[in-house]
Amino acid sequence: MFELIPPDARSSIRIMLVEPDVQLRNNLRQALMGANFRNVMDYGTIEKMKPDFDREAPDLLFIDAHTPGGDACELVRNVRFNKGGNNPFMSIVLTVWQTKIEDIEKLVNTGADHIILKPVSPQVMFKRIEALIERRKPFVATSGYIGPDRRRGPRDGTEVPHFHVPNTLKLKAAKRKVDTGQLQKAVDLALGRMNEEMVVRLAFQLAFQAERLAPLAESASKEAPFALKDLKWALMEFMHRIDEENNAQIVRLANTLAETADRIGLAFPGVPEDKEIELLRKLAQAINIGLRSAATPDELASQVNAAIEKSEKRNKAKKEAAAIARQAQAAVAQADAQGL
Predict the structure, then answer these.
(1) Which of 3, 49, 147, 149 could be stapled to 43 by a disulfide with Cβ–Cβ 3.0 to 4.6 Å?
(2) Same domain for 163 and 31?
(3) Which residues is 43 bridged to in the sheet?
(4) 114 forms bridges with which residues in the sheet?
(5) Where a domain ends, among 116, 148, 178?
(6) Is the alpha carbon torsion for 26, 32, 35, 38 positive or negative?
(7) What are φ and ψ of residue 167, in 5° steps?
(8) Per-residue pLDDT tens for 253-297?
(9) How far apart are CA 64 and CA 20, in angstroms?
């Protein structure tokens, strides 16, 4: 086992093990130490691991999704968005007991490299470490996700660039010294390229959310305020990430879009003026076109419409899955009540 990692290289690999089950945590720690991984720090709560985590990022974070003392999913997601820790590209494995259908999407969207079901054996843990060294998935960056590309194949009408991010676990396994300065330059370079991609994706989201909002606002739907909230979130992220100095005209359009969205919100629960809804759509379209100049307006409109249709189908599938889950739970409860 671990032919990929020379024995004398293992002691330099920094591993953080966060597991609330004391026996399981001790078993995994002993297995790692027995395999000559000497730089292992283990914790039972997020609260206890956070100071060490913020001070010096591990090469590998192995964490239970439901660890007490904080929100593990939020922690991992913040790491990927460079809002926590000091290396957004550290290798991360999330562990979880069997979970509800509605929780799966939350786990996947954290951006963790692997999600594995518990109980976790040392053999499974070692295999994940080897996978992260030998065949780690490239990263993708969308409007709301940074992490490994989990797609099995290309999706209709979408070309999402891949990013090969720094992997200190792999570097140390190859007995290469990790220079802090060089690592930070590599991280900054990857983050910069991802940010550019996310700005383009967020511009698309603005057009998508504006087209989604328009018919809801026109019909005074109860869903309209939620659609407006989604548009404002995308706009906030867009303004946070765009290079204002080199995109002055786009920024002016975005500011006008924000003012228009506020006026539409003030009209709820009534119906906003037609001219305001149309202005919102035109502004969002102009931003999208301005940042995706290689595509024609017709092509962009087609992409937005396809995304709306896909979103509607996905929402319908989620509702059907939730209904099935409720039926199954009710059946189990009834069987328990009858002593079956």
Answers:
(1) 49
(2) yes
(3) 18
(4) 93
(5) 178
(6) negative
(7) -135, 90
(8) 999 999 999 999 999 999 999 999 999 999 999 999 888 755 554
(9) 7
Helix, strand, coil percentages (3-state) for the chain, rounded to 5, are 60, 10, 35
Question: What is the per-residue pLDDT across 88-141, written as a single tens digit (0 to 9) for each?
Answer: 999 999 999 877 777 888 999 999 999 999 999 999 999 999 999 999 999 999
Residues 24 and 70 in one domain: yes
φ, ψ at 114 (rounded to 5°) = -140, 150
Return the pLDDT at 160.
Answer: 80
Model pLDDT, residue 312: 60
Residues 153, 286 within the same domain: no
Residue 40, domain extent = 7-178
User: How does pLDDT run across 205-228, given as a tens digit for each residue?
Assistant: 999 999 999 999 999 999 999 999
Residue 27 reports pLDDT greater than 80: yes
Q: Are 220 and 270 contacting, i.e. CB atoms less than 8 angstroms apart?
A: yes
Residue 315 φ then ψ, to 5°: -65, -40
DSSP 199-222: HHHHHHHHHHHHHHHHHHHHTT-T
Distance, CA of 278 to CA of 209 (rounded, Å): 13
CATH number for the domain that contains residue 121: 3.40.50.2300
The pLDDT tens digits of the residues spanning 296-324 come to 545 544 555 565 566 566 656 556 555 55
Which string of DSSP letters, residue by residue, matches 74-131? Answer: HHHHHHHTTSSSS-TT-EEEEEE-S--HHHHHHHHTTT-SEEEESSPPHHHHHHHHHH
What is the domain count for the chain?
Answer: 2
Domain membership of residue 317 (yes or no) is: no
89 found inside a domain: yes
> Strands, DSSP E only, in the chain?
15-18, 40-43, 60-64, 91-96, 114-117, 139-141, 146-148
245 three-class SS: coil
Say which residue the tokens 């002055």 belong to.
Answer: 248
List the one residue out of 318, 340, 253 whose CA is nearest residue 290. Answer: 253
Residue 315 has which token pair?
A: 């929402």
Under 8 Å CB-to-CB from 239, ≥6 apart: which residues? 251, 254, 258
